[in-house]
Specification:
The complex is a heterodimer. Chain A is of the alpha/beta class. Chain A folds into two domains: 2-169 and 336-388, Quinone Oxidoreductase, Chain A, domain 1 (Alpha-Beta Complex); 171-332, Rossmann fold (3-Layer(aba) Sandwich). Chain A has helices at residues 41-45, 94-97, 111-118, 148-151, 161-165, 170-180, 196-207, 220-230, 242-249, 270-281, 290-298, 320-325, 341-349, 368-377, and strands at 2-8, 11-16, 28-36, 56-57, 61-69, 81-84, 87-88, 124-125, 142-145, 152-154, 188-192, 212-217, 233-236, 257-260, 304-307, 329-332, 361-364, 385-388. In chain A, strands 3, 5, 6, 9, 10, 17 and 18 form a seven-stranded mixed beta sheet that branches. The longest helix of chain A has 12 residues, at 196-207. Chain A is globular and about 60 Å long. Chain B is globular, with a radius of gyration of 23 Å. A three-stranded antiparallel beta sheet of chain B has the order 1-3-2, covered by helices on one side. By secondary structure, chain B is α+β, with helices and mostly antiparallel strands. The chains are: A alpha/beta, B alpha+beta. At the A-B interface, strand 1, strand 2, strand 4 and helix 3 of A face helix 5 and helix 6 of B. Chain B: Residues 132-164 are annotated as: Disordered. Chain B: Residues 154-164 have a biased composition (Basic and acidic residues). Chain A: It holds the Pfam family ADH_N.
């Protein structure tokens, strides 16, 4: 079958690879209908996440049609239309029982790598390096889905393939941040990053009762999407002082909740950004925490921060003084998606959540390398490049 | 009496010799400040989200640990806070240290790797009913590069290594 593979730093290629097979009783094989680029792929692409191996099949946000089921699968049958959580969780361990599904004890067959890095291993993730399991990704005609009863969700009639696609990762990641930050009715929430995850976090915050939601970015086409499809306020950090503007919009308090949806390759302005760039390129820090610092600084006293952007290792100049003295609560997580996907699909079905506007560029799998270039360079207003391994489907719009 | 140059050379050799001795001690695990906390046999544990009866039905040790025979001793106890059961194992004999340890770990025949793998497999079998596999997995061309070999080597040892 065809698959889009990582072949080296900032290099991808469409190659012919073996088709996946059922390896465990709880597996399904999915015929991929839609699969999309994600901002976190750029960290893999750029070589910021170690333990990628040339030839690895990319892609962790996808939906499709069940092609084969393992003998232990109970909830799915051949032909079902499903969206699949990007994180792999068993549903049986203590972390899964607490709905902390990205922390699953049994989802990563290579636990030593992340244990060494972080002290404990977390669950597995499709196509997110061998440190998170080495699972083949979804930028292919078929993908194997382990623990399918936990991770695959039937798409309701009336929800298009394209809308359901973003219920795989962007939306549940956003929900993880909005819910985990402990938003209460009436809160003001600021979100750094207007990509797919940031937009979904903003909408999740609104549906959870936030009264005012402000999304911060520099790309006008993304900020326009926020206003048009999410219904939140926007702030262009290249045009204004983020902290001063947030103070002005919040009566001098600062946001009650700040959500960082940017991650280790943050952009910014001024000498601090240059400092982070230099230190990262010299490998003196693995991640650039530019947006992280700003969010901590802007948050109101006693407020809450949730880190959704992917960080892999260590950061420099972390403002611990602000965290401690302002009594902030800081949390972070990969997505506990299995917990949120059913309600997200219902929000889409009820017309309360727009997702398919994220798919600014829809193309064939053969155009994958071009899609990643456009996505990485933000060319032509690209928010997400979506690939159709099986050609155009009848339910994409 | 040695010349000034000779003194410098002698001092350099002395310093280098001291450094080499300290490195040898650290590698051999004999240095008091080496920090090699794996020099003694320790209990390694997993917490299983099941009752003690489910972890040891009729007192039987889980298969992957039973397969290690007399290599290990096994104990269980309830985990606090309703977190299930702690299943622990440790080697009956001494753990490899120093260069022998490094060679065993790289070669994949360190008994601690067997203990970690057995504990992780036991946990998965009890909680899920099967051990999650990933290979064979579809992949494109894998050129033989040093970093690729490093990733593959680390992956081969990943089930038996870590901080467990």
């Amino acid at each position: 079958m065809k698959a889009l593979c990582w072949t080296g730093v900032n290099e991808t290629a469409v190659e012919t690879v073996d088709e996946p097979t059922i390896l465990n009783d709880r597996d399904i094989i999915l015929k991929v209908r839609l699969t999309t680029t994600c901002g976190s792929d750029l960290h893999l692409l750029g070589g910021y996440i170690p333990s990628m191996r040339a030839g690895d099949v990319l892609g962790h946000e996808f939906m499709g049609e069940v092609a084969e089921v393992g003998k232990g699968v109970r909830n799915h049958k051949v032909g079902d239309r499903v969206t699949v959580c990007s994180f792999i969780a068993c549903g049986q361990c203590w972390y899964c029982s607490q709905q902390l599904l990205s922390l699953c004890d049994n989802g990563n067959p290579n636990p030593a790598l992340t244990e060494g890095l972080w002290g404990s291993s977390i669950g597995g993730c499709f196509a997110y390096s061998h440190a998170l399991g080495g699972f083949a990704g979804s930028h292919a005609e078929y993908v194997r889905v382990p623990y399918a009863d936990q991770g695959a969700f039937a798409v309701p009639d009336g929800v298009s393939d394209m809308a359901a696609l973003f219920a795989s990762d962007a939306a549940p990641t956003g929900w993880t941040g909005a819910d985990g930050a402990g938003i209460t009715p009436g809160d003001t929430v600021a979100v750094w990053g207007a990509g797919g995850v940031g937009q979904m976090a903003a909408r999740g915050a609104m549906l959870m009762g936030a009264e005012q939601v402000i999304v911060i970015d520099r790309l006008p086409e993304r900020l326009a999407q926020v206003r048009q499809y999410i219904g939140a306020e926007t702030l262009d950090y290249t045009q204004d002082s983020v902290v001063a503007e947030l103070k002005e919009r919040t009566g001098g308090r600062g946001p009650d909740v700040v959500i960082e949806a940017v991650g280790m390759e943050a952009h910014g302005t001024g000498p601090q950004y240059l400092y982070d760039q230099v230190k990262q390129q010299l490998r003196l820090q693995s991640d650039r925490p530019t947006a992280l610092r700003e969010a901590i600084y802007a948050c109101r006293k006693g407020g809450s921060m949730f880190v959704l952007g992917v960080f892999g290792g260590v950061v420099d100049k972390f403002p611990m003084g602000a965290v401690m003295n302002k009594a902030l609560t800081v949390r972070g997580a990969q997505q506990h998606g299995q917990r949120y996907i059913p309600r997200i699909l219902q929000h889409i079905a009820d017309g309360e959540l727009n997702t398919q506007h994220l798919a600014t560029h829809v193309m064939s799998l053969d155009q994958g390398p071009q899609g990643y270039r456009m996505f990485k360079e933000k060319q032509d207003g690209c928010v997400r490049a979506v690939f159709q391994p099986d050609g155009p489907t009848g339910s994409t719009s | 009496m040695s010349t000034p140059a000779g003194k410098v050379a002698e001092a350099t050799l002395h310093a280098v010799g001291g450094l080499v001795r300290r490195l040898q001690q650290a590698v051999a695990g004999n240095g008091a400040a080496s920090g090699d906390d794996e020099a003694r046999s320790r209990w390694r544990s997993v917490t299983i989200n099941r009752s003690q009866d489910e972890v040891l039905p009729d007192g039987r040790v889980p298969g992957p640990l039973a397969a290690l025979g007399d290599l290990v001793e096994v104990q269980v106890r309830p985990a606090p806070g309703g977190k299930g059961t702690e299943l622990a194992a440790r080697l009956r004999g001494a753990e490899p240290t120093g260069l022998r340890s490094a060679a065993a770990r790289i070669g994949g025949d360190d008994p601690r790797q067997q203990v970690r793998s057995a504990l992780r497999e036991a946990k998965q079998l009890i909680e899920v009913g099967e051990v999650l596999r990933v290979d064979p997995t579809p992949h494109g061309h894998r050129p033989p590069t040093p970093t690729g070999e490093l990733v593959e080597g680390a992956t081969r040892r990943a089930a038996g290594e870590g901080v467990l």
